Please model this.
Amino acid sequence: MKMTFILKNGNEKEASFSEKQTIFEVAAENGIHLGNCEGFGVCGACHLVVENLHDKLPPATEAEEDTLDRSSGLTVRSRLACQIILDASLDGLRVKIP
Ligand code: FES
Model:
């Protein structure tokens, strides 16, 4: 399965993922550094803007929302990369690094 990261400079990077990986893990495997808390959901630095497949994403937990509130450039489509666990329904996902 594949997903695409839209980098800060506007370039796109396609990445393969497996079921149950987080977006944070997929990014790290592809040399994209997101976040500073190793995926524990507390730093807010792995903030992403989801570009498609919104209806397939599990809703954010209250803890994710609290951390997101401290991120800059927040949008209604903002999520934390470390809190989204991927599955087959998210094949073709596109996320933008703000
Ligand atoms: S890596 Fe820190 S909140 Fe996701």
Observations:
- Residues 51 and 94 are 5 Å apart (CA to CA).
- The chain has one domain: 2-96.
